[in-house]
């Protein structure tokens, strides 16, 4: 205790006020001068061991009350001020500490008010989603980050860009890769633009996947990336250099509201173009039909990852040579959503994707295994879903592995065209009954329900308790 300086001015002031004392009266009881007490209350002097013992003896207070833990309040306040609505008023850590120390009740009130606001926002979001399912478009939207705007735009539109697909096939014709696409793209970068690709160790580039140095014309990639992800990063660079006009034209049509959203949108289109370069439309679509969309066969044939081929099958919508209209969803084991896309847009109104009974959540218990399931929505619509975990960049020994899971789905009517449909065709097992999301689902007695529905009043019968954690009428 002698080594740790304790600055507890605001807490000492609260104790003085609780006892109705002036600084002079309290200083006299503690045996110190009023000016010294004033310095302590303004956090310009620490509490000494002798003064701590005197305080506990005179006012019968707990020592922990003086030391006080503001960590929880600090974290909650940081969450409040990280909201986009308050982005311009983000205080520093010291200011938050002062707020938490000097006015803990007011700080707790701010946190409580913010959580009520978030709850109301969540309910409005659910109601907006419900209105959208019924064909009504809300005119007022909540505060959104640029990334939210970009996600919403790309999730609603068909995941197919004809101009990019044509340009990617022309590029393949030009570079004529025999087997090693990575070397062919590296050679193209060096020959056409003087760009050299270098793989850097973790200690040199600890926080980046890739970095393009315009001065030395070198593209640096992290050794943490798998060979598949390294190939995609090279293909992204190629796409930005080779398809700049097509990317800009597509971006212009999306009409994003901010420069940050446009920057993110450009990256998303470049990422799309990278997949088109790695898996050219004509060759990939023909191979997919022959393999009956066996994702493992396709990823081996094109030397790509499962995640990359799962993205690619949602892009096959060229008129005259379209494929099965797949959609996909990627989440982590906490349920955070990373990506949603679909050949015809992600089917939010029909499928939802927020049900805890989907096999994408069960995939985390069986890493690397493909789980196939037939699911049925409350309105009778049925879908075939394929789920599997994905591994992120290679971590060090003391780092937790980043693992997500991807769900690829389509209408059950396409099951005969897909190899995974054989597992559910003619099966006596009924489809798993799911809903769009707990707040929009009215299935009674659901053991997996995580939230009550917005559309029904809560069950208040004291004599009856249902199977669900949230009863409703």
UniProtKB/TrEMBL annotation:
Entry's Gene Ontology cellular component terms: cytosol
Domain of life (superkingdom): Bacteria
InterPro entries for the chain: Cro/C1-type_HTH (IPR001387), HTH_RamB (IPR026281), IrrE_HExxH (IPR010359), Lambda_DNA-bd_dom_sf (IPR010982), ScfR_C (IPR018653), TransReg_Diox_bact_type (IPR050807)
The HTH cro/C1-type domain, residue ranges: 12-66
Annotated transmembrane regions: none
Molecular function GO terms recorded: DNA binding; DNA-binding transcription factor activity
Swiss-Prot/TrEMBL keywords: DNA-binding, Transcription, Transcription regulation
UniProt family annotation: Belongs to the short-chain fatty acyl-CoA assimilation regulator (ScfR) family.
Protein name (record): Short-chain fatty acyl-CoA regulator family protein
Lineage: Bacteria, Pseudomonadati, Pseudomonadota, Alphaproteobacteria, Hyphomicrobiales
């Amino acid at each position: 205790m002698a080594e740790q300086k304790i600055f507890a001015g605001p807490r000492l002031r609260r104790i003085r006020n609780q006892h109705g004392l002036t600084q002079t009266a309290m200083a006299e009881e503690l045996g110190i001068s009023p000016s010294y007490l004033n310095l302590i209350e303004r956090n310009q002097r620490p509490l000494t061991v002798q003064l701590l013992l005197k305080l506990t003896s005179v006012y019968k207070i707990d020592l922990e009350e003086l030391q006080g833990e503001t960590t929880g309040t600090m974290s909650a306040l940081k969450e409040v001020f990280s909201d986009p609505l308050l982005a311009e008023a983000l205080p520093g850590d010291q200011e938050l500490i002062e707020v938490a120390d000097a006015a803990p009740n007011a700080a707790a009130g701010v946190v409580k008010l913010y959580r009520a606001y978030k709850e109301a926002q969540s309910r409005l979001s659910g109601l907006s989603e419900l209105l959208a399912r019924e064909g009504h478009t809300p005119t007022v939207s909540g505060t959104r980050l640029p990334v939210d705007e970009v996600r919403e735009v790309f999730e609603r539109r068909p995941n197919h860009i004809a101009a990019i697909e044509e340009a990617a096939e022309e590029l393949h014709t030009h570079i004529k890769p025999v087997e090693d696409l990575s070397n062919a793209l590296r050679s193209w970068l060096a020959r056409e633009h003087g760009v050299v690709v270098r793989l850097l160790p973790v200690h040199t580039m600890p926080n980046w996947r890739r970095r393009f140095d315009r001065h030395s014309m070198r593209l640096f990639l992290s050794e943490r990336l798998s060979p598949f992800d390294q190939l995609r990063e090279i293909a992204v660079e190629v796409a930005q250099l080779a398809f700049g006009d097509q990317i800009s034209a597509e971006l212009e049509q999306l009409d994003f509201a901010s420069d940050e959203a446009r920057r993110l949108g450009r990256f998303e289109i470049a990422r799309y173009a990278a997949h088109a370069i790695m898996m050219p439309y004509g060759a990939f679509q023909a191979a997919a039909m022959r393999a009956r969309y066996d994702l493992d066969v396709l990823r081996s044939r094109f030397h790509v990852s499962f995640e990359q081929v799962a993205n690619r099958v949602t892009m096959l919508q060229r008129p005259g040579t379209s494929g099965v209209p797949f959609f996909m969803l990627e989440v982590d084991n906490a349920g955070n959503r990373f990506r949603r896309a679909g050949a015809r847009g992600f089917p939010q109104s029909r499928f939802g994707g927020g049900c805890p009974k989907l096999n994408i959540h069960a995939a985390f218990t069986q890493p690397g295994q493909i789980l196939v399931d037939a699911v049925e929505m409350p309105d009778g619509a049925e879908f075939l879903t394929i789920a599997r975990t994905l591994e992120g960049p290679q971590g060090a020994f003391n780092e937790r592995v980043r693992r997500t899971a991807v769900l690829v789905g389509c209408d059950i009517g396409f099951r005969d065209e897909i190899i995974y449909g054989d597992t559910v065709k003619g099966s006596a097992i009924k489809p798993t009954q799911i809903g769009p999301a707990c707040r929009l689902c009215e299935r009674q007695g659901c053991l997996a329900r995580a939230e009550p529905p917005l559309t029904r009043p809560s069950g208040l019968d004291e004599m009856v308790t249902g199977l669900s954690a949230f009863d409703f009428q």
